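Key result, reporting period 2: structure in, sequence out.
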């Protein structure tokens, strides 16, 4: 059975997150749900389904940038696995330092998450205007991480099948 896409309306989640976090920074903690959902799906063996059917950021970029995007292709270098690995490493490192410096202060942690989500959205908007609307989705660190999880799971399953056949 084919699962239904929520991309027509999931952008509302991103807007709600931003508005609530601006009104009260403590809502920024909800950004962990946005980061955790793709990992949850990937670890359950669903691969990159979050990117294809649920992602609020991808929904927002696709819906609102369609008419203002220059619709250029991403430079070849940005679509390589090396670039995506570097971006994932940089984003994890920066986010980790931000959380470390927040200490155990709830508001500071929430603000770190909110800032991280906002900066990646701003990058996505800039990329979506210059390139195609969902260009961020091509290089998204969460999407790349879920792809790495999917590939690792596929490799483990392939090895298990090879052991059974021997």
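The corresponding designed sequence is given below.
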């Amino acid at each position: 059975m084919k699962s239904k896409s929520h991309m027509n309306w999931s952008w509302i989640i991103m807007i709600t997150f931003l508005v609530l976090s601006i009104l009260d920074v403590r809502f920024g903690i909800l950004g962990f749900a946005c980061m955790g959902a793709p990992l949850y799906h990937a670890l359950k063996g669903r691969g990159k389904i979050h990117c294809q059917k649920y992602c609020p950021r991808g929904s927002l970029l696709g819906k609102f940038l369609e008419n203002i995007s220059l619709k250029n292709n991403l430079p070849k270098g940005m679509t390589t696995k090396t670039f995506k690995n570097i971006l994932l490493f940089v984003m994890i490192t920066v986010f980790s330092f931000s959380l470390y410096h927040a200490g155990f202060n709830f508001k500071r942690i929430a603000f770190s998450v909110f800032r991280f989500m906002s900066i990646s959205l701003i990058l996505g908007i800039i990329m979506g205007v210059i390139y195609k609307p969902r260009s961020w989705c091509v290089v998204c660190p969460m999407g790349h991480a879920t792809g790495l999880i999917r590939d690792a799971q596929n490799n483990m399953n392939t090895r298990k099948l090879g052991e059974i056949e021997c």
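The helical segments are 11-23, 31-43, 49-54, 56-65, 81-102, 106-130, 135-139, 141-165. The two ends are 34 Å apart (CA to CA). This case is discussed further under Risks and Mitigation.
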